[in-house]
């Protein structure tokens, strides 16, 4: 087998500690260096020294890097890694502004390096299975995608609002499962918990392929919900990404004999199937895709260009909410 890829990790906070675990377990990858100016709060370094900064990480001689520091620091770390010739995955969102994200995209494309963004929901087993079934035509024409992502405020998030932290998941997975970009968005936001950024957003929009989309996202609910519903001509597929379950509700084909409902020309209730399939850890699948992209294989890795498109959609949502108008991308 070829030599393992030498991996470096910048940031071992809430997300970085999981990257450390999975990178250590990944075939064909050796985690050789960890850097975090804040030390090692979760004790994940093991026998590796905690390096002080990105320069020390690069000096360790790495082939690939994962950047899991606050969003404001993504651009600086990514630009240094691109300059050093290191394939890089940054946590989502790609950057704190579209301009910063564009500079990152340009730097990695110019250097011929894999630049990826950690939109982990795309690798959730329920959404991977949903994508597979949609591409096989199991819903026929897709009409609508609705997502709900609600729950309590995560104390770890300080630098962005709910749109960039959570709605970005829904934008990425929606565009990916039906393979179409956003065309228009209209959004409304609320600030209910006294922080600088929005903690609730409701979005309606349309994709370039005509699919109607709707996203409800907040940090204000005691009920945690992570649901994606895709409705099409043959029924509906419901993915619950908190459990990894995928359920199909078929349009009914039973003739209606009850007179008062026979005038209704829409669909009726048919069979319901909850699919059984392998449920692998999303982070592991994501990092495998990143590794395989670096090795030159065709993968589902979220490229920096896709991550930038997602950020542009989220910025358009926030712009729409500020102006009270529909925004065309």
Overall tally of structural domains: 2
CATH class of the largest domain: Alpha Beta
CATH architecture of the largest domain: 2-Layer Sandwich
Number of strands: 15
Work out the helicity level.
25-40%
Q: For this structure, what is the CATH homologous superfamily of the largest domain?
A: Dihydrodipicolinate Reductase, domain 2
Mean pLDDT: 94
The ordered string of helix (H) and strand (E) elements is EHEEHEHEHEHEHEEEEEEHEHHE
SS-derived structural category: alpha/beta
Uncertain segments of ≥5 residues (pLDDT<50)? none
Oligomer: single chain
What's the helix count?
A: 9
Rg, Cα atoms, Å? 21 Å
Strand order of the largest sheet: 14-13-12-11-7-10-9-8-15
Query: Largest sheet, if any?
Result: 9 strands, mixed
**End-to-end CA span:** 46 Å
Tell me what portion of residues adopts beta-strand conformation. 25-35%
The global form is globular
CATH topology call of the largest domain: Dihydrodipicolinate Reductase, domain 2
GO molecular function: nucleotide binding
Domain Gfo/Idh/MocA-like oxidoreductase N-terminal: 6-119
Domain GFO/IDH/MocA-like oxidoreductase: 128-237
Protein name: Putative dehydrogenase
């Amino acid at each position: 087998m070829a030599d393992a890829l030498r991996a470096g990790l910048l940031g071992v906070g809430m997300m970085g500690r999981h990257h450390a675990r999975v990178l250590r377990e990944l075939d064909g990858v050796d985690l050789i260096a960890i850097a975090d100016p804040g030390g090692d709060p979760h004790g994940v370094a093991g026998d590796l020294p905690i390096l002080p900064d990105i320069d020390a990480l690069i000096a360790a001689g790495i082939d690939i890097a994962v950047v899991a520091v606050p969003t404001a620091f993504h651009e600086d770390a990514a630009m240094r890694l691109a300059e050093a010739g290191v394939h890089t995955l940054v946590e989502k969102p790609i950057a704190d502004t579209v301009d910063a994200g564009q500079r990152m995209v340009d730097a990695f494309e110019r250097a011929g390096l894999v630049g990826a963004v950690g939109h982990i929901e795309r690798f959730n087993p329920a959404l991977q299975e949903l994508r597979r079934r949609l591409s096989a035509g199991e819903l026929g024409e897709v009409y609508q995608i609705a997502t709900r992502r609600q729950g309590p405020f995560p104390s770890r998030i300080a630098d962005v609002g709910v749109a960039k932290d959570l709605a970005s998941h829904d934008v990425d997975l929606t565009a990916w499962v039906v393979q179409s970009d956003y065309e228009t968005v209209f959004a409304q936001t609320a600030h209910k918990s006294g922080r600088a950024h929005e903690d609730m957003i409701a979005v309606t929009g349309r994709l370039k392929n005509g699919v109607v989309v709707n996203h409800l996202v907040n940090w204000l609910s005691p009920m945690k919900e992570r649901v994606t519903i895709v409705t099409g001509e043959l029924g509906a597929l419901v993915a619950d990404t908190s459990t990894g379950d995928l359920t199909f509700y078929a349009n009914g084909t039973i003739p209606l004999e009850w007179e008062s409902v026979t005038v209704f020309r829409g669909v009726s209730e048919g069979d319901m199937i909850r699919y059984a399939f392998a449920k692998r850890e999303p982070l592991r699948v994501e990092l495998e895709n990143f590794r395989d992209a670096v090795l030159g294989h065709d993968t589902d890795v979220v490229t920096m260009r896709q991550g930038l498109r997602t950020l542009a959609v989220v910025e358009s949502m926030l712009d729409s909410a500020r102006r009270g108008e529909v925004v065309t991308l």
